[in-house]
Write a structure and sequence with these properties.
This protein has one domain (3-16, 25-346): Methylamine Dehydrogenase, Chain H, CATH 2.130.10. The longest helix has 21 residues, at 3-23. Strands 1-28-27-26 form a 4-stranded antiparallel sheet, with no helix packed on it. It has 1 helix and 28 strands. The chain has one helix at residues 3-23; strands at residues 60-67, 73-76, 82-85, 89-93, 100-105, 111-115, 120-124, 129-134, 139-145, 150-156, 159-164, 170-174, 180-184, 195-198, 204-209, 212-217, 227-228, 235-238, 245-252, 258-266, 271-279, 282-287, 292-297, 300-305, 311-315, 320-325, 331-336, 340-346.
């Protein structure tokens, strides 16, 4: 990596840190890292909406509609830009107008492992070559070797975890240097499919494999007690403050009907704190500010109080497979199975 690339990455993260200092009060969603300049800046609304909460969930109104192709995650930047991420493409969605613009794309055999809310993509190929790219300018920031084929990963703070397909472990790399700074290991599963995600504060890792959950201390790599579920874990997420972890599974109800169940955990102890249920399959779970929780399901997106388990309201939107709150908590984006999306704000 050249000195110039280091300077670019440092400037991106420094700008992000400044934004964090100015906007921390609203909490965070998605990948818990600071933002930078975005290709599509959020348009200034004529009236500033208030944060979504118990008092106004019932009054959420659909604004812009949009359509995206094969999304696997939604990522908000701190400045209000919205990105739809697929395996090989990132689209910028204007949250006011609904226009969709391709901003970044890779070709086989590369895939996009994760997208940092500062607009940095982690891209990997089958041989374990990894590159970090600033998507708005397609600027190469880092390149390094993961040591084997990459299964997945996630950004947290100024680091990224990368898990491999040939071994059950995940390596932690520094965004600034590309150097390996730690390893998560020791999780055991008979299932060939697993994932590991690290909390926004970098203290706790959550290992997930089919119907198994196990937390681990990142610094010591000590694992907690395994939790077994009746069904596969379909979706999971840490809260922005790292105090809650949500899992979504399905349980058989009367007459064979499937009920979606979300369980809320204290990551530091592995203690279950709350559980909520709704009819049908839960396609996704995501947190917003103040422990707001949104679940995507067969009948739209439902907003919950993550501390009490109280249901606050539901918005239509088809069979919602993805949902994400903006950093300031004023906007909710949802995407259905067919790729149709909506942006919701309190009125």
């Amino acid at each position: 990596m050249t000195h110039t690339r280091s300077a670019v990455l440092i400037s991106v993260l420094a700008a992000a840190a400044l934004l964090v200092g100015c906007s921390r009060g609203g909490g965070t969603t998605g990948t818990p890292t600071p933002g930078a300049t975005d290709t599509v800046a959020a348009a200034t609304p004529t009236a500033t909406p208030g944060p979504i909460g118990a008092s106004n969930v019932a009054n959420l109104k659909a604004g812009a509609s949009f359509t995206v192709s094969q999304p696997v995650r939604l990522v908000w930047s701190r400045s209000g830009a919205l990105w739809s991420v697929s395996a090989r493409r990132v689209d910028a969605v204007d949250p006011t107008k609904g226009t969709v613009t391709k901003v970044f794309e890779v070709q086989e055999p590369e895939t996009i492992v994760d997208l940092h809310d500062a607009g940095i993509a982690a891209v990997a190929n089958a041989q374990g070559a990894v590159r970090l790219v600033e998507i708005t300018g397609n600027t190469a920031l880092q390149t390094f070797q993961a040591g084997g084929p990459v299964r997945g990963g996630n950004f947290f703070g100024d680091k990224v975890t990368l898990s491999r397909t040939d071994t059950i472990e995940a390596a932690i790399y520094s965004l600034g240097t590309g150097q390996k700074s730690g390893t998560l290991s020791g999780f055991q599963t008979a299932a060939p499919v697993y994932a590991v995600t690290v909390s926004p504060d970098g203290k706790t890792a959550a290992w997930v494999a089919r119907g198994t959950l196990q937390f681990a201390n990142v610094a010591s790599n000590v694992l907690g007690t395994k939790v077994q579920f009746e069904d596969f874990i379909g979706s999971y997420a840490f809260s922005p403050d790292s105090q809650l972890f949500a899992t979504a599974t399905g349980v058989a109800g009367s007459g064979g009907a499937l009920t979606g169940r979300v369980q809320l955990w204290q990551p530091s102890s592995g203690t279950e704190l709350q559980r909520v249920e709704q009819p049908g399959v839960i396609g996704s779970v995501a947190f917003g500010p103040q422990h707001l929780l949104v679940t995507g399901g067969d009948n739209g997106a439902t907003v919950w109080n993550g501390d009490t388990g109280a249901k606050l309201g539901t918005v239509a939107g088809g069979k919602v497979r993805l949902a994400a709150f903006s950093f300031d908590g004023t906007t909710l984006a949802t995407v259905a199975d067919d790729g149709s999306g909506k942006v919701w704000r309190a009125q």
